[in-house]
Specification:
By secondary structure, the protein is of the alpha/beta class. The chain folds into three domains: about 160 residues, Adenylosuccinate Synthetase, Chain A, domain 1 (3-Layer(aba) Sandwich), CATH 3.40.440.10; about 90 residues, Orthogonal Bundle (Adenylosuccinate Synthetase, subunit A, domain 2), CATH 1.10.300; about 160 residues, Alpha-Beta Complex (Adenylosuccinate Synthetase, Chain A, domain 3). It has 13 helices and 20 strands. A hairpin with a 2-residue loop joins strand 3 and strand 4. The structure holds guanosine-5'-diphosphate, 6-O-phosphoryl inosine monophosphate and magnesium ion.
Length: about 425
């Protein structure tokens, strides 16, 4: 199949970067469609680790065209820093293109992200404070500044001045903060424009041509299903659309142009930031998973909250993104746990629910209903064939397939490119 969408099917950090890097080796184009540098995608290749926030994870393959689509909110300083880092490690960004419609993150977005979180007090979302929400707010409010504006100096200066005036009023009068300096921003960003202009184009045209020509195109999701603005655990979500439907609006393709939708999950569940998490573990097993799985945020370094695999969530992702298969990563992390649990439903009073509820208040009082299974001992990071996995690991995977009603296509047994098993 030529076009594949890869999305997170939990709360993000499922190991999408690793899977994109693997699939990119057989792809001609890799495209990011939403989010910004709130994402942190880790790729381990040839003994080196790369942490990418904005650059598509296909960048390690020199022959793969990498596109930052119109739906991404782009912080130019972060992108240029990443390109410098890659160049310093011998990786060229000549194969990168940025859509002219992508919205830009400014210092006032970051400032407002931080201030609004403080103002929310105990009800804060736990955002990455990268300015993502405020940048998408401007987009929806129709005052955002786009890459094509940055390429037009006069227009850019005019737009920045108008926005800074309004944002400073909000920063100072509403939040009691310190405003930002328009002249400083203009000078800084016009400097970025010089470096970025070589990459900026109408990527929707490139993408259409690539798909028409039958090229293999991979859409790299950021965040995950439960962080989706519409279908996630609102308001503890991000401000974009990580579900597969987000790919169409975020890259300018139609739904008929998508052949396959792959969901990435961990063999357990994690989440960073706040909000209900029914299978969260507060005991030693939770700590064991966090330490063994190195569950610390790629973007903020925060410890990730860890819990058992929640099949209700993954079933929800299968349904809302039309997943054709899933990848189960980090099964190696579950080694040496006597009894494993899979959440198959939620109990609310005397009622048992098997579908993920829309209301957070309802979710917060849900008690997970578990199925238990025996675990396995020892390290499985060296295994490359499905039949060589411990019997109980295979049973665990096959039970996930049954409950979530989706095929498991691949299994991750380590962070490396090669630590991957194709499931027959
Ligand atoms: P992403 O945001 O979905 O790309 O995921 P992150 O990179 O934020 O987090 C996933 C982490 O798990 C990274 O440190 C990966 O290197 C690591 N990882 C991915 N797959 C596996 C796996 O199968 N086993 C282990 N042990 N680590 C993995
Ligand atoms: P990747 O692509 C996990 C979470 C934040 C917070 C909420 C809103 O690496 O899977 P935002 O800064 O987006 O307004 O924060 O969303 N969040 C992520 N959690 N992985 C991510 O990306 C995330 N991007 C945002 O922690 O709870
Ligand atoms: Mg991540």
């Amino acid at each position: 199949m030529a076009t594949k969408v890869v999305i997170g099917a939990q709360w993000g950090d499922e190991g999408k970067g690793k899977i994109i890097d693997i699939l990119a080796q057989q792809s001609e184009v890799v495209v990011r469609s939403q989010g910004g540098n709130n994402a942190g995608h880790t790729v381990e290749a040839n003994g080196e680790q790369y942490k990418l926030h904005l650059t598509p994870s296909g960048i390690l393959n020199a022959d793969t065209l990498c596109i930052i689509g119109n739906g991404v909110v782009l912080d130019p300083a972060v992108l240029l820093g990443e390109l410098d880092m890659l160049q310093g490690r011998g990786i060229s960004a000549d194969n990168l293109k940025i859509d002219a419609r992508a919205h830009i993150i400014f210092p006032y977005h970051r400032e407002l992200d931080g201030l609004s979180e403080i103002a929310r007090g105990k009800g804060d979302i736990g955002t990455t404070k990268k300015g993502i929400g405020p940048a998408y707010m401007d987009k929806a409010e129709r005052s955002g500044i786009r890459m094509c504006d940055l390429m037009n100096t006069e227009l850019f200066i005019e737009k920045v001045r108008a926005n800074v005036e309004l944002k400073n009023t909000i920063i100072e009068k509403v939040y009691g903060g310190t405003g930002v300096d328009a002249d400083g921003i203009i000078e800084e960003y016009l400097g970025y424009a010089q470096r970025l202009k070589q990459y900026v184009t109408d990527t929707t045209v490139l993408l259409y041509a690539a798909i028409k020509a039958g090229k293999r195109v991979l859409f790299e999701g950021a965040q995950g299903t439960l962080l989706d603005l519409d279908l996630g655990t609102y308001p503890y979500v991000t401000s974009s659309h990580p579900i597969s439907g987000g790919v169409c609006v975020g890259t300018g393709i139609g739904p008929t142009m998508i052949d396959e939708c792959i969901g990435v999950v961990k063999a357990y569940t994690t989440r960073v930031g706040k909000g209900p998490f029914p299978t969260e573990l507060f005991d030693e097993t939770g700590d064991q998973i966090r330490e063994k799985g190195n569950e610390y945020g790629t973007t903020t370094g925060r410890p990730r909250r860890c819990g058992w695999f929640d099949a209700v969530i993954v079933k929800y992702a299968v349904r809302t993104s039309g997943l054709t298969s899933i990848v189960v990563n980090k099964i190696d992390t579950l080694g040496d746990i006597d009894r494993l649990k899979i959440c198959v439903g939620y109990k609310k009073g005397s009622e048992t629910m098997t579908e993920f509820p829309p209301s957070l208040e309802e979710l917060a009082v849900c008690e997970p209903v578990y199925e238990e299974m025996d675990g396995w001992d020892g390290d499985i990071g060296h295994i490359r064939k499905y039949e060589d996995l411990p019997e109980n690991a295979k049973k665990y995977i096959e039970r996930i397939e049954q409950i979530c009603d989706v095929k498991v296509g691949m299994i991750g047994v380590g962070p490396g490119r090669e630590q991957n098993i194709i499931k027959p």
